[in-house]
């Protein structure tokens, strides 16, 4: 379906954007995450991380927390439209994203 393809391309772009912004913010590359996005695609990469237990915090998220930039996490992005209502992520994966953000101290009123 053309709409799904457009959303998938938008997600790919958004993941690239957060990797670039992460590098500007921290001075460090997104490393493994960016490599996986390039080789496997953003949706497959996001699913990989969302299929892991919520308390398994991927490398780099500690930097994002320190700068209070939860908007630069894949977990935050998948919970935004149009991805939230897409068929790309299961309810369980979306719950993992919510739980992981909560474990990191995300509070919606603090987001940028």
Description of the structure:
By secondary structure, the protein is mostly helical. It has one domain. It has helices spanning 2-26, 31-40, 42-50, 61-66, 74-78, 91-103. The protein starts with a helix and ends in a 9-residue tail after the last helix. The model has no long low-confidence stretch (mean pLDDT 92).
Structure summary:
This protein has 112 residues and is mostly helical. It has one domain (2-110).
List descriptors:
0% strand, 61% helix, mainly alpha, single chain, 112 residues
Order of helices and strands: HHHHHH
The geometry reads as globular
Strand content of the residues, in percent?
Answer: under 5%
Distance between the termini: 33 Å
Question: How are the secondary structure elements laid out?
Answer:
Blueprint: H1 2-26, H2 31-40, H3 42-50, H4 61-66, H5 74-78, H6 91-103
């Amino acid at each position: 379906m053309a709409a799904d393809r457009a959303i998938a391309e938008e997600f790919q772009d958004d993941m690239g954007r957060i990797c670039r912004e992460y590098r500007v913010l921290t001075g460090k590359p997104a490393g493994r995450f960016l490599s996986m996005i390039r080789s496997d695609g953003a949706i497959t990469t996001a699913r990989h991380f969302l299929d892991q237990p919520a308390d398994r915090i991927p490398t780099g998220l500690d930097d994002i927390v320190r700068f209070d930039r939860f908007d630069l996490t894949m977990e935050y992005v998948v919970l935004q439209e149009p991805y939230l209502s897409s068929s790309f992520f299961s309810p369980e994966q979306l719950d993992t994203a919510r739980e992981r953000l909560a474990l990191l101290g995300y509070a919606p009123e603090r987001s940028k």
